[in-house]
Design brief:
The complex is a heterodimer. Chain A is of the alpha/beta class. Chain A has a single domain, classed as Rossmann fold (3-Layer(aba) Sandwich), CATH 3.40.50.970. Chain A has 12 helices and 10 strands. In chain A, helix 2 crosses helix 8 and helix 4 packs parallel to helix 6. Chain A is globular, with a radius of gyration of 19 Å. The two termini of chain A are about 20 Å apart. By secondary structure, chain B is an alpha/beta fold. Chain B has a 5-stranded parallel β-sheet with strand order 4-3-2-5-18, with helices on one face. Chain B has a 5-stranded parallel β-sheet with strand order 7-14-8-9-10. In chain B, strands 11-12-13 form a 3-stranded antiparallel β-sheet, with no helix packed on it. The longest helix of chain B is centred in the last third of the chain and has 19 residues. Classes of the chains: A alpha/beta, B alpha/beta. At the A-B interface, helix 1, helix 2 and helix 10 of A face helix 17, helix 18 and helix 19 of B.
Chain lengths: ~325, ~550
């Protein structure tokens, strides 16, 4: 039996009319809760809006709707909830930029004390609130193994306030605070933090990375995380047309290329150990990914690579491929 | 006036109609799949493949027979221009459309599926001349439309070139008979051994409201080279026709076939099966210029048939054949070189093409005959009102699938003509090109080929050389279809919309854009695997 018969038409599409309803994705179902509803004010083609709906819909499904969402300040909060509106169709709390993990810890503790252990807690924020402003609270939440799934939607800068650099901004990227000036324009090499690896260093039960180009994978990871207790961390790459200088229609293409070039590895880890990675299906050079983004435009001239720093970017991708066995055979 | 903030709906975002940001809107479109476009019989291939994918085999067969009543026959003998057009080549190889068609045709025979009963009787009578693929196709479509059809066939059996041109190792006769019987079962009257010799007189007598001519082309073209009286020169049309009679033709041990078309290969392979020790095809040009299909040449070579390219017959005395070597000029035409060689042959079979016998039309007024074929207009009507024609006797590429298409088209126009109606304007969608596919979403899946009996083994018998696909294989082959240009409900658009602005309407109903909230980001169109969403600029 060949592949197409075993996995009828479109194994890589979001839905599939030929497979059993139970096996289709949540996003393909008309029963998805649409946690983030129409009318939100995210830009055209916003990766974060898409990622957040997928994550929260999956968590709602996994908890049978018994979910409280704690949101840090950032794009996601601003575009979804201008007073007195809200696009959220779930219990939702917002406090400050830096304290979402601490608020979530409190929510989880309160539910436990009230004997409502079935009500689960999900905290979420952008890369600014996660890797910079709220990192102290997050590290504490990890260290105490509080029963929270924390989700970071990483668009690699402070997009809401005008595209300033964060500690998740990749090297060479242009932001408002890393301009394309000097002999090495854009963000400096050798800076920033890798939050999934930092989360793993806390030995928490579950750490995973995901992105909006592979919604099956994203949903599976949220579902798995919600089947566990304790501190869990999910890092979701969400392309940002505004901050990356990309076409709104390229949001998913870019997420896919980030994975396929190796710069953004998809993997899972339990208790500090990597347990598996999603293999690259169509390996591409980093140029394919970078070239579609104006924030890297200074690395190219007339479509040709002109900056030797591209080789350093490629080396980062190659290191990920080795470290997470991204070109190897599927373990299971 | 109330302050701004309290105008907004509390606890919802729905009063914020983000659709007003849009400059382009997504629109679901239907494009013409390249396979459908390439099919001379006009089958909706994508549609029936989709029904196979859903394991609705009978529905799939009923979809095919809307346009072609011979899936089991054409699943074997069609040269499948659909597969040559298939966009799946950008992934690995075309979908095996022809083999799935054969599977459905064979299944229909096995399960005894019958055609739908004809529409209410129209009271009109149509005469069809000839029972080849074009004539039977027209008879079938006319009968389904409720007309009374009479077929006049010159020979003692139906099928025309399907029977008297295509050897049974490619088309078993029980398959041919089963699919023809199904047409006759619709109430079509068949008159065998009835040669129409004077159509004007027949029409004068009346009794028919319209006529469809499909007399074919069965007069073998001859070559002129000196022969002795005791040299045996036969023609391919007669040899293949005699194969259907009680006594099989005797060709001898050393057979030479002259010509390079599909008929030359058919007669050469038949000679091998009749017991010839050596069969040699003599052809004036080279393999690239050979009109026969490449796969047929390969199959003949596997059966140890020898092809002498760049050779022409100069002379044939008793059993000695003299060949002259040819060379191609800059235009690709063969020119004599003066170099000759001889070989022994018990008979020479000419396979140099066929002409139509149009003498029965002599007294019919208004006809235009050019290059030995009858001219017809875009509605398949000749210069004589009510007299339609198709198949090999009109200008065409002379294949069964073209004939089936002619028959269908003529039947439609006969129907309109009988009731003095204008043909509705044809709307043809734009072709779904492979540039519109997002191939990321399709899994790699290798094509399943039909199994072919080993060359030496198959050359010893008239058994069918190729066996059909199993149901599992046909299913997996159909599921390789990319559904170019037409939504197959993969839910990608519904899943990737960041604005939850796509409504899923349920199985078979597709999707609808909620323009109140769609911001026009085009993610749906970009991530649509099959290119069935267009982005259209908003006015103002």
């Amino acid at each position: 039996m060949n592949n197409a018969l075993r996995n009828p038409k479109g194994i890589y599409t979001i839905g599939n009319r030929l497979v059993d309803q139970k096996e289709r994705t949540i996003q393909s179902s008309t029963d998805r809760c649409n946690a983030l509803n129409c009318g939100h004010r995210a830009c055209q083609g916003c990766g974060e809006a898409l990622g957040a709906r997928c994550v929260v819909d999956a968590a709602m499904r996994a908890t049978n709707g018994q979910l409280i969402v704690v949101n840090a300040t950032g794009c996601l909060e601003v575009f979804s909830t201008p007073y007195p509106e809200t696009a959220w169709q779930t219990a939702w709390v917002h406090s400050l930029f830096g304290n979402a993990p601490a608020v979530a810890t409190g929510v989880a503790a309160a539910m436990k004390i009230k004997g409502r252990g079935e009500v689960r807690t999900l905290a979420q924020g952008g890369d600014g609130s996660t890797t910079d402003i709220g990192f102290g609270c997050l590290s504490g939440m990890f260290e105490r193994n509080d029963d929270v799934l924390y989700v970071c939607y990483d668009n690699q800068a402070y997009m809401n306030t005008g595209v300033q650099r964060s500690s998740a901004t990749p090297p060479a990227a242009r932001t408002a605070t890393t301009p394309t000036m000097g002999h090495e324009p854009g963000n400096v090499f050798g800076t920033g933090k890798n939050l999934p690896l930092l989360a793993m260093a806390h030995q928490i039960p579950y750490v995973a990375t995901a992105t909006v180009s592979d919604i099956q994978d994203l949903e599976a990871k949220v579902t798995k995380a919600m089947s566990m207790r304790g501190a869990r961390y999910l890092h979701v790459l969400v392309p940002c047309p505004l901050g990356w200088g990309s076409l709104p229609r390229h949001t998913i293409t870019l997420a896919r290329l980030a994975v396929q070039c190796g710069l953004y590895p998809l993997f899972e880890a339990e208790n500090g150990e990597v347990t598996g990675s999603t293999k690259i299906r169509q390996h591409v050079p980093v140029e394919n990914y970078l070239q579609l983004q104006k924030r890297f435009a200074h690395l190219f001239k007339n479509g040709k690579a002109v900056d030797e720093r591209l080789a350093r970017m490629q080396a980062m991708a190659d290191a990920n491929i080795r470290r997470f066995n991204l070109l190897g055979v599927e373990e299971n | 006036m109330k302050p701004f903030a309290t105008v907004l709906e509390v606890g919802s975002s729905l009063s914020n109609r983000t659709g007003s940001w849009r400059t382009e809107r997504p629109v679901y479109v239907h494009r013409l799949p390249p396979c459908n476009n390439a099919c001379p019989a006009g089958e909706n291939i994508q549609e029936w493949l989709s029904l196979v994918e859903q394991e609705k085999y009978e529905d799939a067969w009923r979809e095919i027979v809307k346009n072609n009543p011979f899936p089991a026959i054409m699943g074997r003998v069609c040269y499948h221009p659909c597969e040559n057009a298939c966009n799946r080549v950008v992934l690995e190889s075309p979908v095996g459309i022809n083999s799935v068609e054969q599977f459905l045709g064979d299944k229909a025979i096995k399960e005894g599926w019958a055609f739908d009963k004809p529409a209410k009787a129209s009271g009109k009578k149509v005469l069809v001349i000839g029972s080849g693929p074009a004539g039977l196709s027209a008879a079938y479509q006319l009968a389904r439309a409720g007309h009374k059809v009479t077929i006049k066939e010159m020979l003692d059996k139906t099928g025309g070139m399907l029977r008297f041109g295509i050897p049974q190792y490619r088309l078993p006769r029980d398959v041919l008979d089963a699919e023809i019987k199904r047409i006759l079962d619709l109430g079509v009257e068949l008159q065998l051994n009835t040669k129409e010799s004077d159509l004007a007189a027949t029409m004068e007598k009346g009794g028919f409201d319209a006529v469809f001519l499909s007399a074919g082309a069965h007069i073998a073209k001859l070559a002129s080279f000196p022969t002795s009286d005791n040299a045996r020169v036969l023609d391919a049309v007669s040899v293949l026709r005699d194969m259907e009679g009680k006594t099989k033709p005797s060709l001898g041990k050393r057979v030479v076939v002259y010509g390079g078309g599909n008929t030359a290969l058919d007669v050469a392979r038949t000679a091998k099966r009749l017991g010839a020790e050596t069969v040699t095809i003599v052809y004036r040009r080279n393999r690239e210029k050979m009109p026969a299909h490449a796969f047929e040449v390969d199959e003949a070579l596997q059966e140890n048939i020898v092809i002498k390219y760049l050779s022409t017959i100069k002379d044939y005395q008793k059993t000695t054949l003299t060949l002259e070597t040819m060379a191609l000029d800059e235009k690709g035409w063969p020119q004599p070189t003066g170099k000759t060689e001889t070989m022994e042959a018990d008979c020479v079979v000419l396979a140099l093409g066929q002409d139509s016998d149009l003498s029965f039309l002599d007294k019919v007024s208004g006809l235009k005959i050019a290059n030995g074929v009858l001219e017809v207009d875009a509605q398949m009507m000749s210069g004589h009102p009510g007299l339609f024609a198709g198949g090999d006797m009109v200008p065409s590429s002379r294949t069964a699938t073209v004939g089936i298409g002619h028959g269908k088209k003529a039947a439609r126009h006969i129907d309109l003509w009988l009731f003095k109606q204008e043909a509705p304007a044809e709307v043809k969608n734009e072709i779904a090109g492979s540039d519109r596919l997002n191939t990321w979403y399709y899994a790699e899946a290798q094509r399943t080929e039909r199994k072919m009996t080993d060359g030496a083994k198959r050359a010893g018998t008239f058994d069918e050389v190729q066996s059909g696909l199993s149901q599992d294989e046909a299913l997996s082959e159909a599921r390789r279809c990319l559904s170019c240009g037409n939504c197959f409900e993969c839910d990608n658009c519904y899943g990737v919309c960041p604005d939850n602005a796509i409504k899923k309407l349920g199985a078979g109903k597709g999707f609808e854009i909620n323009l109140d909230y769609c911001k026009g980001c085009a993610l749906c169109a970009t991530e649509c695997p099959c290119g069935s969403i267009d982005m259209v600029p908003e006015e103002n």
